[in-house]
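quick one: aspartic acid bound model?
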Amino acid sequence: MNSKRRILLIATGGTIASQVTDHGLKPGLDAEQLLSYIPELADEFLIDAVQVCNIDSTNMTPEIWGQIVAAVEAKYLYYDGFVVCHGTDTMAYTSAALSYMIQNSNKPIVVTGAQKPINEVNTDARQNLIDSIRYAGDPDSQGVTLVFNGNVIAGTRARKTYAHSYNAFSSVNFPVLAVIQEKKIIRFIPQQTYTEPVHFSYRMNDSIVVLKLIPGTKPELVEYLFQNYDCLVIESFGVGGIPQSLQETFYEQMEKWISKGKLVVMATQVANEGSNMEIYEVGQRFKEDFHLMEAYDMTLEATITKLMYLMSICGRNYTAIYDGFYKTINYDILSRS
Ligand code: ASP
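yep, here:
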């Protein structure tokens, strides 16, 4: 009997699979070609590959997330781990989305990519792919993670913080789960125990928009967003508040729309430590009057994709969405004051 661990590589494109063209880098290598750059792993793992799409991740959509989930579900029983090759630009959104769309997985689903194409001499692609397969092939790994530059980050905690460096991703408001050094995986966070079976879900309600406040944001914009989207995430300043100049419009719009099941969620533009609307008068009253949700220490990527997921399964049931939003999934939220 073959005792090698079985890995399914799911390719979606990105820089890792890109080739030089007259108009800039463009994904062109397919899943099998990616594997041809890491022949040494064939001694340790049985690796098969499938192609879901071959796109720059700028073009990623919730529909394609559904196709990635379907690729994992279709082969879930046959493989010990899954590696999704992806562009770095929207990788943190995808790792967060998959954290909600694939829950309670004792098998690892690793999202990875690279800052340089795998066919270049100086590239981080080979190492990231090798690390990801090694992590996905380890019996102690589980759940959705993003592996990059030797760091294993919970799928909901990743954020692209460097545009060019190999150290492209940070784990925001949460420690890295593990680091990979050569063949060794050094784990910092113990495994979770799932009491429920693995669960796959495909639909994401994408009627959601982010309003990043700037000094002087115009009230007309707020009105338009309320009218056209089911969920408005406000990326506010500091720990969270609504400027005086917008308050009248917000009150008017919220009274009109909240009873129709529309949602407003407060997040912050500050990179670390998260929101807390209760601290300042500009936030507290507003939060209390409308029983608002806030992201606290969640990343924006996790906030958005968690809401897409919850809106798709709970419809307009505000209480179910509210309770679901504050339930921790894949380490996404810790502090709730
Ligand atoms: N534009 C590329 C993408 O996200 C960047 C990368 O993969 O690093 O697909």
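The chain has nine helices and 18 strands.
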